[in-house]
Amino acid sequence: MSSRARRGVRIAGVLVTALALAACSSTGGAQTQTTAASQPAGGGGTSGTPEFTIAMVTHETPGDTFWDKIKSGANAAAARYNIELKYSNDPQAAAQAQLIQTAVDSKVDGIATTLVTPDALSGAVKAATDAGIPLVGFNSGISEYKELGALMYFGSDETIAGNTVGEKITEAGAKHPLCVIQAEGSVALEARCAGVKDKAPNTENLQVNGADIASVTSTIQAKLAQDPTIDYVVTLGAPIAVAALQSKQQANSSAKVVTFDLNTEAIKAIQDGGIEFAVDQQPYLQGYLSVESLYLYLTNGNDIGGGQAVLTGPSIVDKSNIDAIAKYAANNTR
Amino acid sequence: MSTTTPNRPPATGGAPAGGVPTRVDRPIGQRLLARPELGALIAAVVIFGFFFAIAPSLRSMASISTVLYEASVVGIPAVAVGLLMIGGEFDLSAGVATISTGLFTSMICYQLSLNMWVGTFLSLLLALVIGFVNGYLVVKTQIPSFLITLGTYFILWGVNLGVTKLVTGSVATVNTSDIEGFSSLNTIFAAEIPFFGTTLKITVLWWILFVLIAAWTLQRTRIGNWIFAVGGNPASARAVGVPVDKVKIGLFMGVTVLCWFYGMHRVYGFNGVIQAGEGVGQEFFYIIAVVVGGTLLTGGFGSAFGIAIGCLILAMARLGIVYAGWDPNWFRAFLGVMLLLAVMVNLYVKKVTSSRRLS
C-alpha cells in the first residue's frame, strides 16, 4: 500500500469513528434496554475444581437459536453442580458418532447426546455403555433410547407434539392446514407434520429453503395464493413462523399461524395475536435435565422418569400464559 | 480462446471478443447461437408456458409479483457473481457474505445504539473490504479463486456464528426496527409498490436497475471489454495493456457490494432479525442462475440479460412447483437437470462459434 493510500485509510478510519460517535440513535438499541441478552437462570455456581466432566454431543446445525437454549440449560446445570461441560456438535450422523466415541476415549464421567439417527449412533452409544460411562439421550430418539442402552431420556415426542397441534387446530375449526418444513430430509420435522396430519387429515406439507428467509416468505406466499382454502399455517420453528406472518399479510390470506418452538419475535407475535399458539418442547429443560440427571445418577444412583422417558413437551404457549413466559424467553431460557 | 484479441470491443454483448472480421456474412442461425441468453430464453419461455398452463394460481398479478420477488433476491447477488464469472473467476463466499453484512449492520446498530444509516454505511465498507481481500488474494497468489473463496466462505461462516454468539449471547440478532433510520432505509431496501392491483417488492426494481447497469457496462464501456478480455485470455489481455488485476479485484468487490445490498434487504425487510447460520448454500443458487443464463464457467462469455433470465428460471421453477401443488422436494433435482442441460448447450455453442472462427 502506498503511503498516500495508507494516509487515506487512516483518515477514513478517523472520519468513520467521528461519524459513528455523532450518529447514535436516540431510539432502540442495547443501551436503551435494561435486561442483558443472556443471563443463564438458576445458575448458582460453585467454585473449585470440577467434580465431574460431562460431554454433551448434539446434531446442532450451527447458527440456529433453538440450540442456544439447550446449551443455556446445560450450562446452568453444569454451573450449579460444579461440572465441567464439554459441548460438541455435528449435524452429520457419522461425525456425531465420532464425537461420542471421542468422549468415550477421553473417559468423561457421563455423556448426554441427542439420538436423532439412532441406527447410526448405536455403535458409539454401545461403546460408551461398554466402557461403563452412563449415557442419557435427549431431544430426539424417544422410541429408540432404551434399546440403544441409554439410561434416561428427556425430550418431546414429535408425534405427540404434532398430534397436539392437529387436535387443537381441528377443535378451532381448521379445514385445510399447511405444514411448513424448513429442512429437507429431517425425520423429526417430518414426524411433526405427520403428527398434525393424524388429527387433521387435510394437512398438506410444504418444503421451504430455511437458509434464506426471503425465499421462505415468497414460497409460503405462493402456496397461500395457490390454495386460498388454507386456513392454518403450521410452522416448525419460530423464525419460520415470523416469516409466515409476512407471507400471509402479502398474500392477503386470513390463515392463522401456529408454530413449534419459541423465540423473542414469536413471543411478541403471540402477545399481539399474530401467532395463535406455540408448542414448546422446552429446550432449556432438555439441556438442564440431561446434565442434572447424570449428576444425580453419578452421586445418588437416581433414575429420573423411573424407567420411562421424561417428556419436556408439548407445552402450549398462548395468550393466556405468554406474559409469564416472556420474561424467561428474554433471558434465553425458555 | 487463444485467437481472441481482447482489446477490441465485441460487436455484440456476449460474443467471444473480436477476431471475426466477416461477421455480417455469418448465417442468422449462427449469429443467434452466439448470443449467450438464447438457450436460457427458450427454457424460460417453455417453463413459464408450462407452469402457466398447469398451475391456474400462477395466472394472477399477485403470483407474478411473488415470482419476480423470488427472482430478485437471487438475482441481485447473481448479477455481480455473473460478471465475476465472465471475468473468469468464481466466488463461493457470496452466500454467507450476504448474511455477514446483515448481521454486522443489525448488531453494530443495536449494541452501540447507532443510527441505522451509519451501520448500513459501515457494513458497505465491510463488504468492500471482504471483496477486496478475495480479489487481492486471488490476483497476488494466483491460487484458483475456487480455493481462495472456499477459504473465505468458511471464515465468514465461522465468524458469522462466533461473533454473533459473542456479541448477542445468542446466535441471532435482535429486532432493530425501533432504531432511528430504520423506516427510511426500509423504504429503500424493502418498500412495497402498488402494481396492477397488487404490490411489488422494491427489490425487483433494484434488480432490474442492476441488470441494466451490468448490461450497459458489458456492452458499451471499456470496462466491459476488459471483463470479457480477462475472462477470455488474461495473458494476452495483460499484454495489450488491460489492468487485469484491478479488473478482477473490482469484480470481487462488485460481488460483495451486491451481497451487501441483499443483506440490507434481509435486515430492513425482516425487522433486523437474522439467524447467524443463514445464507449457507445460497452461493450455489447464484452460480446455477449464472450458468443456466448462458455464462461460460471458463470465463469470457455471457451476458447480464442471460443471468437475469437464469434467475427467473430458478424462481419460476421453485414457485411454479408450489403453484402447481407438487412436492417441492423435487426442486433441487430440477435445478441439477437445468444446470447440466445449460452446461451442455453452452459447450455446444462454444464449439460452433469457435470452429466458425477458425475456418
From TrEMBL, chain A:
Stored Pfam families: Peripla_BP_4
Localization per Swiss-Prot or TrEMBL: Cell envelope
Superkingdom of origin organism: Bacteria
Molecular function as annotated in GO: carbohydrate binding
First and last residue of the signal peptide: 1-22
Region (Disordered): 32-51
Main location: other
Record-level GO cellular component terms: outer membrane-bounded periplasmic space
Keyword line: Signal
Every Periplasmic binding protein domain range: 54-299
Family: Belongs to the bacterial solute-binding protein 2 family.
PANTHER family, sorted: ABC TRANSPORTER PERIPLASMIC-BINDING PROTEIN YPHF, D-XYLOSE-BINDING PERIPLASMIC PROTEIN
Protein name: Substrate-binding domain-containing protein
Automatic annotation (TrEMBL), chain B:
Keywords associated with the record: Cell inner membrane, Cell membrane, Membrane, Sugar transport, Transmembrane, Transmembrane helix, Transport
Principal location class: membrane
Annotated region (Disordered), positions in chain: 1-23
Signal peptide: none
Pfam families for the chain: BPD_transp_2 (PF02653)
Topological type in the membrane: Multi-pass membrane protein
A GO MF term: transmembrane transporter activity
Gene Ontology CC terms, in alphabetical order: plasma membrane
Stored InterPro entries: ABC_transp_permease
Localization of this protein: Cell membrane
Transmembrane segments: 38-55, 67-86, 92-110, 117-137, 143-163, 193-216, 247-263, 284-317, 329-349
PANTHER family given in the database record: ABC TRANSPORTER PERMEASE PROTEIN YPHD-RELATED-RELATED (PTHR32196), XYLOSE TRANSPORT SYSTEM PERMEASE PROTEIN XYLH (PTHR32196:SF32)
Name of the protein in its database record: Xylose transport system permease protein XylH
Organism from which the protein derives: Nakamurella alba
